[in-house]
Amino acid sequence: MATRMTSARFVGRAAELAELQAALQDAADSRASLALVGGESGVGKSRLAEELTRHARESGARVLSGDCVELGEDELPYAPLLTALRPLVRDGDPALEALAPSLRAALDAILPGLGAGSSGAEAAQSRVFEALLALLDALSESGPVLLVIEDLHWADSSTRHFLRFLAGTICTERLLVLGTYRSDELHRRHPLRPLLAELASDPYSRLIELPRFTPEELAEQLEGILAEPADPELVERVYRRSEGNALYAEEILAAGLDGRGALPPTLRDALMLRVERLTPRAQELIRWLACQPAADHALVAAVAGLDPSDLRDALREAVASHIVVTVGDESYGFRHALLREVVYDDLLPGERTDMHAALARALEDRIEGGESGAHITAQAAYHWASAGDQPQALAAAVRAALAAERVNAFGEAQALFERALALWERVPDPELTAGIDQIDLLKRAALACDQAGDPTRQEALLRHALQLVGEDADPRTYALLLERVSQSLWSQHRQDEAIAELKRGLALLPPREQSPERAILLSQLAKKRMLQSRVTETKEAAEEALAVARASGNREAEGRALNALGTVIGVGGDPDAGVKMLRESLAIARELGLPWDEGGAWVNIADVLHLAGRTKEAIEVAREGLAAEAYPAWRTGEWFQLTIADCSFHLGDWDEAEAAMPAASRRHTGGTFLFWQLTRAMLALGRGDLTLADEALGALDHALEGTTEPQFVGTYGMLSAELARQRGDIAKARAAVDDAIDRIEYCSDDMARITLVSAAGLRVEGDAAQLAHDRRDAEAERAAQERAKTLIERVRLASASGGPVEAAQAATAEAEYARAVGAGGSAATLWAAAAAQWEALSRPYPVAYARWRGAEALMAARDRDQAARAASAALATARRLGSAWLAEEVESLAARARLQLGDEATAVDGDEAEDPFGLTARERDVLALVTAGATNREIGERLHMAEKTASVHVSRILAKLNVRSRTEAAAVAHRQGLVPTA
Questions:
Q1: Which pTM does this prediction carry?
Q2: Best CA proximity match to 860, nearest among 830, 827, 890
Q3: Worst-scoring range by mean pLDDT, 250-254, 304-308, 384-388?
Q4: What is the CATH number of domain 668-823?
Q5: Alpha-carbon distance 623 to 610, whole Å?
Q6: Burial (0-12, 13-18, 19+ Cβ within 10 Å), 542
Q7: Distance of alpha carbon 84 from alpha carbon 88, whole angstroms
Q8: How many Cβ atoms sit within 10 Å of the Cβ of residue 227?
Q9: Sequence spans of domains, the chain
Q10: Quick one: 14-211 is in which CATH superfamily?
Q11: What is the DSSP letter of 39?
Q12: Does residue 740 register a pLDDT over 70?
C-alpha cells in the first residue's frame, strides 16, 4: 500500500512541546535541565522527541541521540551514550580534543578508538561521568546541546546512574537531556522507578506524561495521513477502536482506509498484519533483527543466509514498509520498539533458540578476531543465555562481566556475575568452563555490588563465600573476606558491626604473624578508627599495621597505614611528622596506581597543615593536589577547591575564598555537600549575611542526621551557635553548642573540634552574662557564669595537647570567660593576648574580633586612648575583610564612647574625656541611680528633685546615649565606665 500510514503533521501535544521548547531555550540561556517523557506504548513519545529534535536543529542546537535496547537486564553498559557519542569519535569532533588528557582517558573507557592513550581501566565510573559532562559542556560552547535517550525503561544500570549524576550536577550548562520511557512497562520494582521518584521533586527536572489523543487530535492525525479531512464517522470509528492510541490508529488505517479493516483486538496482533504483508525474505530478515536490536550490516549478513543482492532487496522492502529504519551508527532497527517485540514474540521457541545461537556464534567470531569490548561480549553473553546453552552462557557471562568491570560498568558487571552464579550448579565442571573458581566469582560479584552502590547485596554474596571457604578450613581467606564484609557494613552505616568483623578476622590469624593478611586487616582498622577520630586506637592499629606490612612486603597496606597514622599524628600536635608519613603514603599510592589513596593523601596533608595553623602551606598542597588530577572522582577535586576557600577565609582573603568555591552548577552530595554548605555559611556569617548563613545551615538540618564525623558536626555546631548569637537567640545558640559537644564526645577524641565548639559556647555565655548583668537579672547571670565555668574547663583540658590553633582558641576562650564572669581589668589583657596569638597565625578575622572586645574592656577600665587604638585596628581589619557586622559593632562602640578612630586614634580631649556623651554632673548622678535600678520616684527622693524632673533627666540621658531604654542605658554606662563598677 503506497499510502503513508504516518502523519506528516505533528498533532496535538502543544502544551508538552511548548514546555520542552521552553526547556531548550533555558538551556540556551545556561539553565540546564533534564526532561523525561512517559506514556504507554504507541502514544507518541518518540514523535514528540522527533519534533523537539527538529526544532532544536532549526534553532542551531547540537543534537545527540541514542536508544536503550532490550538486551537482557543490565548487561550492555552505556548503550545509548555509545550510540549518541560514537559519531563524535568517528568525525574527530574538536570538543573531544579540547578535553583535558585525564578526561579523555576516562572517556576512552566507553568510547574505544578515542585515542586517549588509556584503556580506561583506571577510570572510576564517577570520573567517566564527569568526563561525559565535560564533553557535553564543551560541545555547548557553540550552542545549546540536546541529548535524547529513548526507551529508558530498558536503560542499563550505567545509563541510569549517569542520569542520576546529571540530575544532581547540571545547573548552568547549556544542556537539555530528554528521555522517553513506557510508563505501562514500569512494574512495582522496576529500576527506573527510584530515579523518577527522585526527579519528581527536583527543580532542574521535568516529568511529562503523555495522554492518548482526544477525538479532535485523532481527526487531525487522520487528516495528516489521508491528506484530506477525515469523515466524522471514520474519526469516530477509529477513535472507538484505537481509544486514542496514535500507533494503533495508524494500524487500523493500514488494515483499511475506511477504518473497517479486519484487525485483531490488540495492538500487538494488529502490528503483525503489517509484517505478514512482506515477502518471505523480508519477513525472515526482520525476524533476525527482532533477536538483535540495532544490528549492523555485517552481523545481519553473517546470519541471514542471503546473497548480497537479496539482502539489499529485503532490507529495502522492510524500510519502505516503515517497519525497519537505519539508526545513527549505521545499524538497522525497528521503527517502533513495539514492532520488534511483536515479531520476537511471534517466533517459535525453536526458532528463537537457533537464531540466538547463530548470533552468538557470529559475535564469537568477532571476539576471536579481536573485538573484545564490553558491548560485544555482553551481546554474545545475552545470546548464549537466550539460546539455552548453559555452559556457553556461563563462560560468556563471566567474560562479559570482566569486560564490564574493566570499563567500570559495575551495575552491568554485577548482573552478569550474578547470572554466572545462577548457572554455576547447572554446568558440569563449572570452574573449568568459566575459567574462575566460585569463591573468586563471588568476590568479584561482591566488588561489583560495592562499586554499584549495593552494599546489602555485597554482604550477602560475601557471606555465601564465607560459607564455602569455612573458618577452620582456610582462616586466611576467611579473614580477608571478613575485611570485605566489614567494608559493606561500614557502607550500610553499621559501624560497630564493621569494627567487630575486622577484629574477628584478626582473631583468626596468629597474633604476632607478619603476614599480608594481617597487614590488610590492621590497616583497614586504623583507617576506620581514624575516620571516627579515635586517636589512641588509630595509633595502635596503624603502628602494628605498618610493622606487619613492611615485614610482609604489602605496600598497599603500608600506604594506608601511613595515611591513618600520619593523619592522627599530624592533627594530634606533630604536623611535620604527620605530613612526612602522609607524603610516604602518597608516594606509595602513586607507585601502585591507587587513585583513591592518592587523592586521600593529598586531602589529609592539607587538612593536617591547616589544623596546625600552617594555612598558607595547606593552600599550596590543595592547589598541588588539584593540579595533579590524580583524584578518582570530581568530588575530590571540589574538595580541594573547598579547602582553598576555607583556608583563604581564615587567612583573610575573602574574595579569593569566594572565587575558589566550586561553581554553582555543582549540586553536591555526601561529604562534599556538607563541606560546601558549611563553607558558604562561614563566609556569610563573616560578612554578616545572616539570611544566606541561615539558608546554608538550614540545608544541613537533615543531611547531618546520624553523622558522627567531628569535622562536620563540630563546624556545624560552631556556626549554628554563632548565627543564633548574632540574632540574639541565646537559647538556640546554647542548644547548638550542647548538641555538637555531645555528639563529638560520644564518638571521638577530637580535641580540636571540642575546643572549637566550647570556645564558641563561651562567646555565647559572654553575651548572655553581659546581657543579664545589664538587666540586673542575677539568676540569669549566675546561670551563664556556671555554663561558662563548665565550658572553660573543657577548653583547658581539650586544648592542652593541641597546637597553635587550639592555643589561640583557648586564649580567646579565656577572654570570653573573663567577660562572662565580670573579671574587670584583666579582660583587656586577655583580649590582647588572644589577638596576638591569632596574629601569629595570620588569621585577621579573630584578631579583629579580639581587638573589638579588647576595646570594650579598655573602655570599662577607662583607658580610652588604648581603647581608641584597639577599636581603630579592629575597624580597619573588618572593613578590609568585608565583615559588615563587625565593622558596625566597632563603629557603634566608637559612637557611644566618642572615640576618634583612624591613624591618629585617640579619645576626645578635655571634659569630654571624662564625659564622652556630654552628660552634665547632675545627669551623671541620675545615670548612676538608673544603673542601680532606681525608679523616677526613687531618683527624685535621693537627689531631692520632683519625679517629673527626674523623668526629664532620664529622657535626656537616653537621647545622649542613643539608646531606647533604661536597661540599655545601664549597659552603656557599665561598658563605657560612666559609673563606678560594683
A1: 0.70
A2: 827
A3: 250-254
A4: 1.25.40
A5: 13
A6: buried
A7: 8
A8: 11
A9: 14-211, 216-254, 668-823, 825-916, 917-975
A10: P-loop containing nucleotide triphosphate hydrolases (3.40.50.300)
A11: E
A12: yes
